[in-house]
Amino acid sequence: MFTGIIETTARVVKIEKENTNYHFTLEVPFGDELVIDQSMAHDGCCLTVVKVDKEKKQYVVTAMDETMLKTNLGTWHVGTEVNVERSMRMDGRFDGHIVQGHVDQTATCTKVIDDNGSWRFYFEYDPKNAPSITVPKGSISINGVSLTVVDSEPGMFSVAIIPYTFQVTNFHNFKPGTVVNIEFDVFGKYVQRLLEQYMAAQK
Question: Which pTM was predicted?
């Protein structure tokens, strides 16, 4: 489980394909602290560390075919900057919102507006892929970043980004056409599913 508060970004340094699996080697400042079997969120996608090179501060994670199909990992290449967060500690403050690291689907950035001190990012996604619900002032995870929804319509939402978040995450690389991972708020997903079951029972 994660909070959506990004620690830093990692850089993809190598990609290897083995059957339907992809092995990604990444480099990160705290790479010498990692251990095998550790869970980390990569652009919001929970992946397990399978190999560590503490001297180079590099590590390897593996993504199976299902993960590649449902996330933006297929767009990664050598040099890609990835948001990373280690799993939540239970002895600290909970600064974000509950992020499971289970990507619901991808979304595409459609517009970036410079608000003279902050930025507004607009995204579109397929509303037919359940669960798919946002509400104004609700929570959303974009590439693992815990954010608050500003505008909300079926298949579209926007978020506002402060300079700190813009600088320390890979949001500074976003432009129209950028594909990102999104995870809807877990509480909203349960409410949506319960309502769907209730409505189906009334028919």
Answer: 0.89
